[in-house]
Specification:
The protein is α+β, with helices and mostly antiparallel strands and 501 residues long. 31% of the residues lie in helices and 15% in strands. Strands 1, 2, 3, 4, 5, 6, 7, 8, 9 and 10 form a ten-stranded antiparallel beta sheet that branches. The protein starts with a helix and ends with a helix. It binds protoporphyrin IX containing FE and 2-acetamido-2-deoxy-beta-D-glucopyranose (NAG) (5 copies).
């Protein structure tokens, strides 16, 4: 990786680590000393026992004992690649972020695709939204666009996230997936209806990672060079076309080829068949926010494209496979809190909760110095007053450890200050439960009636009926009530397919 090479070059120049005048070609311990024999441990006689003094054995075994880091609490199974982003349209009237400054400008990117609910060894083709996260290595720091492949989210308040995820994971007693937990939570929180319809449509079983769109879902704020802002949603559409698996095929692949999507991506890139996506923004001014009939900061809602048209920004191309999965994909840390000058958070409650959750879990999953891992390193030097902690690798030498100081000549960037203009907020501090106070069904109804054709409706009903049938009778009735609020037609089709209610 280029960042790794740069880091090593810098350290070598600074005299921090010795440079090797010649490469060796023998096997070593972790501390670099040549191993005497690799295929046997040190024993007293032919039949053992082993000796404590076999430091080569202990070096090998003790490292092995610590090979696993915690898997991601969500999005544990995934694959990824590297590539570049190329600006194709000028959006500087909305956003002053350096990566958008010029048509034709290229920025290195890393992408990680994932399923959400399953463990790290689970099958790629299980019904689920997919994660689709992009890290842009810009000249003003790393910007992470952490999206999913369906355009809406199942809740609009982040405090419900841990509970909702628990219903997608395993039952505490049986360690089995449990349809009652899932349908209990879904029917008690009707704001989940919109996402549930997407996930049980064909969009819930995409054909690998290359044939899906990506959506930032959470609403952000873009600031332009004169300090004016708009609110924004990000969408990146596949140039390969949307493709999905039938339910039967997806279920078959769960058994026969659980790594189907990871393999497909790797092979496509290896054969020079580089997948690409076109990045768009939708924008809303403060006036449009004030006049909107729905809350633009509600992650269960789409911004209708007839009123908020897609504005092209550029093209994302993946042309480089990882050379070391653990170092480049497992250890990559994506977070919506990683923004660059010109991109800011909006009041979106889900986003505000996410700003805390990702770096928090990454400090736990990878350790507090996870930003020093090469794949997470920015292109430019880091200058701050954070020091030490486990595994600190680039500890900024002898530069001052406090601010303000009279020693270094660093100051904040005027550009970053100008692109962070003050804004006002007001309101009564309160726990506002929006489960039933906002419209939960108009957009799901539009999805069912207008966005799906009849063939897609048939698949949706089929997929939903199978899943609801696995729940107990009272929950089946609640699910029918829920979908009856979307459409009487959907309810009656489901009713005829669910036998035990
Ligand atoms: C309250 C809402 C949410 C919370 C608390 C939350 C929390 C998390 C956490 C803790 C991780 C693991 C990160 C890691 O270990 O590195 C994660 C991963 C992820 N989340 Fe969320 N999430 C939320 C909503 C969303 C939404 C709305 C999206 C899509 C727009 C999303 C997309 C992703 C993706 C793509 C990943 C995987 C990133 C990767 O590939 O490393 N999440 N989320
Ligand atoms: C980047 O986009 C510009 C503008 O559309 C185009 O002229 C150029 O060929 C593109 N470059 C690459 C490497 O895709
Ligand atoms: C920033 O946006 C405002 C409001 O739309 C506009 O008047 C101004 O010209 C924009 N600035 C730049 C540098 O594009
Ligand atoms: C740092 O920048 C701020 C704002 O541009 C300025 O007011 C301040 O004097 C600068 N401080 C130093 C030590 O240069
Ligand atoms: C939906 O409509 C039914 C009436 O058929 C009602 O009883 C129910 O509470 C509504 N809401 C939900 C979330 O199911
Ligand atoms: C919505 C959609 O594109 N559905 C397609 C999913 O894949 C099956 C099998 O290829 C098609 O028949 C559907 O049209």
């Amino acid at each position: 990786m280029f960042t790794m090479l740069k880091l090593i070059a810098v350290l070598v120049l600074a005299g921090a680590i010795p440079s090797y005048s010649q490469q060796n070609n023998y096997i070593t311990t972790g501390f670099g000393s040549p191993v005497s024999y690799k295929d046997a441990s040190l024993t007293v006689g032919r039949r053992g026992p082993l000796l404590m003094e076999d430091t080569e054995f202990i070096d090998e075994m003790a490292h092995f004992d610590r090979e696993r880091i915690p898997e991601r609490v969500v999005h544990a199974k995934g694959g990824g690649a590297f590539g570049y982003f190329n600006v194709t349209n000028d959006i500087t009237r909305y956003c002053a972020a350096a990566l958008f400054s010029q048509v034709g400008k290229r920025t290195k990117i890393a992408v990680r695709f994932s399923t959400i609910g399953g463990e790290r060894g689970s099958a790629d083709t299980r019904r689920d939204p997919r994660g689709f996260a992009i890290k842009f290595y810009t000249e003003e720091g790393n910007w992470d666009l952490v999206g999913n492949t369906v355009p809406v989210f199942f809740i609009r308040d982040p405090i419900l996230f841990p509970s909702f995820i628990h219903t997608q994971k395993r039952h505490p007693a049986t360690f089995l997936h449990n349809a009652d937990m899932q349908w209990d939570a879904i029917t008690l929180r009707p704001e989940s209806t919109h996402m549930v319809l997407y996930v049980f449509s064909d969009r819930g079983t995409p054909d690998g990672f290359r044939y899906m769109h990506g959506y930032g879902i959470s609403t952000f704020k873009l600031v332009n060079a004169t300090g004016h802002h708009v609110f924004c949603k990000f969408t990146y559409m596949t140039n390969q076309g949307l493709r999905n698996l039938t339910r039967a095929r997806a279920q078959q692949l769960e058994g026969s080829d659980p790594d189907y999507a990871i393999r497909d991506l790797y092979q496509a890139i290896r054969s020079g068949n580089y997948p690409s996506w076109t990045l768009y923004i939708q924008v809303m001014t403060e006036e449009q926010v004030a006049q909107s009939s729905f809350n633009p900061f509600d992650d269960t809602k789409l911004w209708p494209e007839d009123r908020y048209p897609f504005i092209e920004v550029g093209r994302l191309t993946l042309n480089e496979n990882p050379t070391n999965y653990f170092q480049q994909i497992e250890q990559i840390a994506m977070s919506p809190s990683r923004m660059v000058p010109g991109i800011k958070p909006s009041p979106d409650k889900i986003l505000q909760g996410r700003l805390f959750a990702y770096p928090d879990t990454q400090r736990y999953r990878l350790g507090p110095n996870f930003l020093q891992i090469p794949v997470n390193c920015p292109l430019q030097d880091v200058h701050n007053y954070q020091r030490d902690g486990p595994m600190s690798y680039s500890n900024q030498g002898d530069s001052p450890v406090y601010h303000p100081n009279s020693v270094d000549s660093l100051n904040v960037s005027q550009r970053a200050t100008q692109l962070s203009p003050p804004y006002s907020v007001s309101g009564d501090v309160y726990k506002y439960d929006s489960g039933n106070t906002e419209d939960n069904f108009a957009q799901p109804r539009d999805f069912y009636e207008n966005r799906l054709d009849e063939a897609a409706r048939i698949n949706l009903v089929d997929n939903l009926a199978e899943a609801i049938s696995a729940a107990s009778a009272p929950l089946q009735r609640r699910a029918l009530n829920l979908f009856g609020n979307v459409s009487a037609d959907l309810r009656s089709r489901l009713q005829s397919r669910i036998t035990s209610q």
